[in-house]
Amino acid sequence: MTRFLLLAILILLSGPIANGQGPEGYNYDEAKVGTYTLPDLLVNTKGKPVKTKADWRNWRAELLKLFAENVYGQTPAKSVKLRFQTTSVDESALNGLAVRKQVSIFFVDYPQLPPIDVLIYFPKASTKPVPVFLGLNFCGNHCVTAEADIPLSTRWMMGENSDVSNNNKATEKARGMQVRRWPIDMIVKRGYALATAYYGDIEPDYPQGWHTGIRSVLGDTTKANNWGAIGAWAWGMSRILDYLQTDPAIDAKRVISIGHSRIGKAAVWAGAQDERFAAVIANESGEGGAALARRYYGETVERLNTSFPHWFAPRYKAYNKRVADLPVDQHELLALVAPRPLYVASADGDQWSDPKGEFLGALHTEPVYQLYGKTGLGTTVFPAVNQPVGQTVRYHDRTGKHDVTDYDWEQYLRFADELVR
Predict the structure, then answer these.
(1) CA distances (Å), 46 to each of 55, 62, 258, 364, in order?
(2) Which residue range or ranges hold the 4-O-methyl-glucuronoyl methylesterase-like domain (predicted)?
């Protein structure tokens, strides 16, 4: 387990190498990408063209099955009884700026499973239901805010021995460690709520983590299309949405799925499957997210499946050395969000996630948005750094490393103001 985690950290921190080679010889040279042929987004598996919205709805259902069978695994169709328990309400959080609520989501039929603990901030000044950004965090709710009264998570955490995690348990030094990724003040001042939960509440992020997560009771580990952790985290986002639909302070028709890195992959898969999400934001989601799998640049399908064998369906590994045989590619995943608004974002210091591949993934959704009379990106030109482009589909390539910054959030808030509110 430790070997996988250390490898993951090295990958995420790595940047471009001057000679065009990434970690252990992986390609960072655009001249070495080579040629590839993408599956035609508007031609189904029977070779029939997709010409109308009705055609797309039928083809969309088939694409979802193809992604479930070959990439993310089959999300169990079984409904799960939930119980929502509000554990805390602070009517004057963040110096009176917000109302803060903590809610636990229990699985009624599976009392052995821990709940999903959701942390929500609402604009205190709002007099009507508000739209909400819903995203999972990497280190517990205590890490997204410096507030001392947020309970320290007792769940499994990355890192066996460090300042912020001891024997895979959070320490007090973890409190507020990722405040920079969650500018709560900025979000609520703009009239939005923020809902977040620790992704480890749904499934701990290591190969055996499924033993204590939702996949221990749902799914079938013997099947090649058994869902992976990405699928479980996406499923968990929909269960949080189930709660948000019951909260009178939330406008349930304007819930935005957002995620960074591996959770960016989950946020897109959640938004593709669950059309209740009003919009989707994928921040540096890379391989298995917004980046085209067939592009030989940065992280590859093989490296992804080797470093993180628990994230995807077992069948996905069959394509490690034959990516061209995949029946789908990521532009088709992103197109499943249509006609809803979509934002894909990259960082120029995060070449491992393949910024151009992410841009192209967003670009190639255009034909589906056109079926709905909408313009997607509306450009084929890869933009300059810090120059957002697009219309119903947006994209930017920010300066900096693999992270979520205030710059990113400024773009997402503007995107939501224009397309979701």
Answers:
(1) 13, 11, 34, 21
(2) 225-373
User: CA-to-CA distance for 179 and 218, rounded, in angstroms?
Assistant: 33
| Angle of helix 262-273 versus helix 229-244 axis, rounded to 10 | 60
The sign of the CA dihedral 154, 158, 164, 169 is positive
271 vs 261: CA distance, rounded Å: 15
Which structure tokens are listed for 231? 């699928």
Q: Could you report the per-residue pLDDT of 11-60, keeping only the tens digit for each? A: 333 333 334 555 666 899 999 999 999 999 999 999 999 999 999 999 99
261 is catalytic: yes
pLDDT in tens, 361-376: 999 999 999 999 999 9
The full set of domain ranges for the chain reads 2-419
Q: Which of 261, 285, 346, 353 is catalytic?
A: 261
Q: Are strands 279-283 and 342-347 parallel, antiparallel or unpaired?
A: parallel
Classified by CATH at the fold level, domain 2-419 comes out as: Rossmann fold (3.40.50)
CB 197 within 8 A of CB 117: yes
- Calculate Rg over the CA atoms of the chain: 20
